[in-house]
Amino acid sequence: MELSINPDTITKYFSKFIRPALGLSLLAAVQSLLVSTATAQSTPTDLTLLGIEDILKSRIIPHDEATGSPISAERWSFGYNFVTAHFKEYQTGTQTLSTAHMQTLFPVLPIEIIQRAHLLNVGYHVTDRLFMDLQLSYVQQETCHISVVPGFDQFIIKSHGVGDTSIGLNYMLWSDEDESLWAGAALSIPTGEINKKGRTPRSAVQDTLLPYTMQVGSGTFDFNPSLNYIRKMGKFEWANNLQGTVRMGKNYHDYSLSHRAVLKTTLSYELFPFLYPSVKLLGHYWDRIHGQDNDLLAPNGSYPAPVTHPDLFGGRKVDLLLGIRIPINHGILRGQSLELEGGLPVYQYLNGPQPDEQWRMAASWKWRF
Q1: Distance between CA atoms of 325 and 274, rounded to whole angstroms?
Q2: What stretch of H or E contains 356?
Q3: What are phi and psi of 56, to 5 degrees?
Q4: Cα dihedral sign, 160-83-262-163
Q5: Which of 149, 155, 210, 234 lies most in the core, judged by the most C-beta atoms within 10 Å?
Q6: Close Cβ partners of 252 (under 8 Å, ≥ 6 residues apart)
Q7: Cβ neighbours of residue 29 under 8 Å, at least 6 residues apart?
Q8: Which of 261, 283, 284, 315 is CA-nearest to residue 94?
Q9: Phi, psi of 307 (to 5 degrees)
């Protein structure tokens, strides 16, 4: 008896069962990573590590029923993103520490940190399966301190400047009218400065080097692999993004920032053709700073503040974010969209003591043409 296998049957089975299983397996693997033991503080450059899933999820390419070929869409995309995060209280593990207790550990103490990042992204679909993008950034940080050093009882340090630049490629591994899977790789180029100086308690007469959290760049070339899985289910859309950051070597101050893994899963709903509310879970894992900048030490070799201690970086946390997206599908503004979201951590485990995140907000404008 001759066994006959229908290729169409295999394709339908793969599309219906294997693809979603792969997407769920990916999420389960990363979730296990996020709950593993980690070491713990966050630099403003971390705000620039945004995935491009919002651009890619518009590329679930429908097929022409007559020919089975993909239908062309807009090739170019341009976007502006603004994101800000606020840090205030100190935490070690899941335990909150009082300011009075922290003052017994460090002579200088940041008590409030505000980070902001402005991102410009330009993308181009070389083919229906290959997408390339360029991201430029401008980052800012403002930190309020208290200190036991005379003349520095309370002071504010600000830093800002052009951040690192990212160049990426993304390839669509598969797609049909309901789902797609993309694999990406980006290279972060160290265009951001790591030699920012300001008036600190280490010297009352001249500016000194600011700590890791006040620098606007990483100082290293970084590799950013990613996976993006997007599925449409009627009026629901489920988008998932896994992104890593691997620092390659150390910078000229003899350190490298934390390696990172970020997992995002977003469920949005078409309430109206012009309004998509969404809920997002954003999981972070990051480790300590590798190496040390000895210029940040006090004259006696101690760490004057927790933000100068490389072991007090790293941890894991999960943010819950609510958002709305307003696409414009007709008229002179066709192809543009506005998105707003905000939220706060629902879980933080920090290798502290270090400042914990209180809340974050983001706004973005995108244009496909």
Answers
A1: 8
A2: strand 336-368
A3: -70, -30
A4: negative
A5: 210
A6: 194, 219
A7: none
A8: 315
A9: -75, -5
Report residue 129: phi and psi, to 5°: -110, -15
pLDDT digits (tens, 9 = 90+) for 302-335: 999 999 999 999 999 999 999 999 999 888 888 8
Mean pLDDT of the chain: 85
Please list the alpha-helical segments (H only) found in the chain.
7-13, 19-34, 53-56, 99-103
Q: How far apart are CA 354 and CA 43, in angstroms?
A: 12
122 alpha-carbon distance from chain centroid: 17
**How far is Cα 58 from Cα 202, in angstroms, rounded to an integer?**
51
pTM above 0.90? no
Contacts 24+ apart (CB under 8 A), 208-211: 208/295, 209/293, 209/295, 209/296, 210/157, 210/159, 211/296, 211/305, 211/307, 211/308
Q: Phi and psi dihedrals of 318, rounded to 5?
A: -130, 125
**Structural domains for the chain:** 7-368 (2.40.160.40)
Compute the distance between CA of residue 355 and CA of residue 337 in angstroms, rounded to an integer: 34
Cα separation, 155 vs 204, whole angstroms:
12
